[in-house]
Amino acid sequence: MLKKYLIVFFISMVPLIELRGAIPYAVAFGLPTLQSYIIAVLGNMLPVPIIYLFARKVLEWGADKPVIGKFFTFCLEKGKKGGEKLQAKAGKGLFLALFLFVGIPLPGTGAWTGTLAASLLDMDFKSSILAVMCGVILAGIIMGVASAGLFGALGAFF
Fold it and tell me: Residue 53's domain spans which residues?
């Protein structure tokens, strides 16, 4: 059981998959929902302060390096585009926009991208972490409900 919880924790830390993949994994393997949800949220939030504080600096440093430059430039551009879209739509409601950007589980949105966008927009550390955390909680609820409904329907069908 501990091994499955660790897998949930580590899946939720992976960029692009995050808790959007960890919660369906937990539901599919019959883990208790509340414990899995808490573990997935913690795993998804663990890298967020590190991303905010260091990702921008590392990406800017590596953007002109021969092997990693293209990927780092891609990440910087993706973060800037996400941040610009967020700022254009939000105006003064940047906190709410970041919360919804992270909270609505669509491809390319999530804690990693949202935190990088907040860092590139020079958002306040405390408010950006809080907005991302609230978004992760919302995304977890949405994925939990969707996963339970999908797997429950499949179980009833088969």
Answer: 2-157
